[in-house]
């Protein structure tokens, strides 16, 4: 019997969404960089392939919507924990409608859907770090206190702590879980400060995996049957120093995944999928 | 202490009533005639006046209590209990005297006795004062004078005699009084046992544990609901009676420390009890869970209590009696059943263990939540748990202070502070402050922190601080075993697993549905009090008892000893002393405005004559059932009492040169004397209520850096302080230094924090006079409403407030009005009254009291005056309607005010007065800012006069006024509410 808070990193399904053609021109970005749509699409296909073929997840691919240039980043459109999916209200007005398709997909998967209907609340899934024991919610340009409150209400079992996020788009722009109790964190001052806050707020002890590059700290950890600890992380081409750090994780199955082009529109590895564990039905 | 007598008292009370009535009606008149001394005469007179029924006013008062803040309310209920207590005692006395008829002689005897007693009390008081060396004599002097004045006045109160009997009763009852108490157990059942009344908490707790066959008992505790319906833990090391005060002997057995890892508990029975607690927590919503978790935990509950799912026996409705969640849906029940099926073969003990394994992971497991505000006034929750202190805003955790991070926890008034260990990069310790709803709440959270820290983080509890002779602040420490110790102890448990019956949660859920048993009982108690009340209200005589009742809290306050700890340590001595003091307190607060006024203007002779005429009038009143009618004159009269008192106490010749303004006052008193009265516009059924809400805001805790210097600064003063408070253990503030577990026990000392002490000093230094005194003064307030009548006089009464701090000696009545009249005699007099009153309160109310007792002192002043009011229109001009007016002043006070401005009185920074008027209320706001010892203190005094006829819901208006005042200054605390009521009781239309 799966108890509460067991099986961190166990996933069976992934929801992804194809890259819209409008991404290159219209997707929100902080750097103002030119984006090569083809490269983005290639990265996306590689990503989906890893999930589907290499890891054997059931991948549910949603069609792109040109009216939603950022729709490939499905992470922001849903927070799934256990059997519950919170459908948030993204901070960027242009992205609000992204949730519709995602919600439909999650509903179809049989999750309990909680919608963030409060007009004053905003939350991007990219600001939500679930450690397996608790949630940290970054208060950023995209996520506000009210959004965090609603998340806390949706996942009552867990402590939900807020972390101010500055100098980055999302909380997970510079951190993520690299294993059970292991937080991958960037080296920037903002990242380190955020980590301090998280450590102070938590009743649990976390190890940290410090990466020279903030963006490299966004990785995907899974614990899959037959494969053990799996980590999708940045490629040495992108972040050579950080890649070396990942390579020191001997027990993990390490899978470098290219993310160079998506990074130009502030997309991280975690941004492109919503991972779900459906196997254990309780 | 009230409870003991009340049980028999209530029964007898009714019978008692009649004799008492008679007694009262007789005595006042007699007394009045016999007294030759002017003061005495006055007092007698007062008694006369006071006897007429005050039903209306008292009723009002009762109802008002609904709207008062909890701390006030609590006091209130205490006071309501009191009468029965005292009355019953009185009854005994009457019986011994022979049938309840008191002859004059008896009366006199009693008076004599009373005097003696008072003198003794005074003596004591003086001794105490003497101890307080640093107190300026100027301050104390008036107080004494006041007391003397009181003793003379005492005759007014038929009540006082009871005091003596109370004492004796207490003595008699001391021997092995047994009391039955009820403990609600975790399975919802009730455990009753008989206890010696003075038994400590421990005794009862052990009884319960024995009943439960529980060995690992350190995780559990007994709690009770205080009068504010707040859950309080019963301290095992202290007497139960001292802790529960007026509450019922109703307790709840519950988990106090939630073990971090229940699997480490040795016995299944302990785990079972923990499960029961958690089921309560979950179904009541205290422990929030997701749907899935509700279902999972519910399924383990079913497995533990029903065993394997039986498809034949267990249809879907078999669980509908269980409460798995606060809002249980059919869907949830289905899920529970589905999961239940999957637990096949699991034993009850295993199911419990599984239940706990999941429950312990919930983020709110074992978190004790307290409402608070942060430094910005934002609503937050403080969560005390095994690992430290958690700060929540709504559901979000916004901060966390692990025990190792916390150097010190303390509370001052309603503030709770934690001193934080500096981080790696930081140089200084920082202090974080939180504002709790009230002082008791602050203390409660502090205690819970002390206990949790000790239990979970220390290896063994701190050494008690008994060695310290004089300590300021609470001595409270956790005295039980720590988790480490209890684990060690339970590892030694060597007994076969005890058999125990798992009661069905069905039963549990039922008990949970309603209010906990305890609270129900509280209600019943309240109801009981209410029953007692009505007869009192109806009865004119009963009034005096009530007055006394009201005073009682004050008395508590009066005894600086009354701090909780002192109580506890004090054996039998305390009550006695207390009651003596109480007598004083009463006297102080009961006065008659008429008398005072007259005194002011007339020679003694005049006064006597006047009184005689009044008593005549009164008789006529009594014959004709009076109808309530208002007299504005009376209202104004109220202001005067102070004046007279002043004169008395000062020994000022009674003949004061009549002032121009005074005429009108006289008129108000007796229509006969002053024909002008007739000319007054008539007001029918006007009821005035005056509320003075004083709020004191202490600046937030000094900035961390600042605090250090402050500590050093005050160190010297601190010592003085201690000597001052010699026997009182101030619980107003306390600190607790968190010690890391590694520290050896010996090094864990509890330091008296200079900081605290400074605070304490601070309070004591607070200029006692003005603010506090005001309640009494209220009487003057009527002026506001009465303005129309005597615009000319107003300034006199109103002026004082403006510079309260600057002129501590004159306790301005606080009727903040802009006009600053030069201190004329009149003004001074009121001051004195106020001053003395305030002083009394202040003296007796060192902050000490606050913690242990509700920081409220309630005093009541009842004045009934006979007056010729203005004529009614229907009445021909010749006929002078007689209006009977009752004036009542009730003071609710937070105790932190200090009478003796010790040392620096503070520097007045600003003082302003704002007046605003609305439909039926006049609000005068008086704001003073003072600077003392680097801290600025802001006092806001609001004077709200509600004027209107009986159609107005005064209670509502009052409540509204209080509420508004609170809302306007959310970060301030209300330290005092004075309700001054003037109601016209009767009219004689002949």
TrEMBL record, chain A:
Gene3D superfamilies on file: L-arginine/glycine Amidinotransferase, Chain A
**What does the record give under GO molecular function?**
amino acid binding; dimethylargininase activity
Under InterPro entries, the record lists:
DDAH-like (IPR033199)
Keyword annotations of the record: Hydrolase
Q: Which residues bind substrate?
A: 28, 70, 75-76, 95, 142, 265
Gene Ontology CC annotations of this record: mitochondrion
GO biological process terms on file: arginine metabolic process; citrulline metabolic process; positive regulation of nitric oxide biosynthetic process
Q: Where, by residue number, is the active site?
A: 170 (proton donor), 271 (nucleophile)
Q: Which family does it belong to?
A: Belongs to the DDAH family.
The identity of this protein, by name, is N(G),N(G)-dimethylarginine dimethylaminohydrolase 1
Tell me what organism the protein belongs to.
Carassius auratus
Gene name per UniProt: LOC113041361
Automatic annotation (TrEMBL), chain B:
**Disordered: annotated span:** 1-158, 526-580, 622-833
Give the InterPro entries listed for this entry: Band_4.1_C, Band_41_domain, Ez/rad/moesin-like, FA, FERM/acyl-CoA-bd_prot_sf, FERM_2, FERM_central, FERM_CS
Predominant location category: cytoplasm
| UniProt key word Phosphoprotein | yes
Keywords attached to this entry: Actin-binding, Cytoplasm, Cytoskeleton, Phosphoprotein
Give the CC-aspect GO terms. cytoskeleton; plasma membrane
Start and end residues of each FERM domain: 179-460
CDD domains xref list: FERM_B-lobe, FERM_C_4_1_family
Give the molecular function GO annotations.
Answer: actin binding; structural molecule activity
Q: Where is the composition biased (Polar residues)?
A: 640-653, 766-782
| Basic and acidic residues biased stretches | 9-20, 82-95, 103-128, 142-157, 662-675
**Phosphoprotein keyword on record:** yes
Compartments it resides in: Cytoplasm, Cytoskeleton
Could you mention a single GO BP entry for this protein?
actomyosin structure organization
Source organism, top-level taxon: Eukaryota
Give the matching PANTHER family. 4.1 G PROTEIN, BAND 4.1-LIKE PROTEIN 2
Q: What is this protein called?
A: Band 4.1-like protein 2 isoform X1
According to its UniProt entry, this protein's organism is Carassius auratus (Goldfish)
Please name the taxonomic classification of the source.
Eukaryota, Metazoa, Chordata, Craniata, Vertebrata
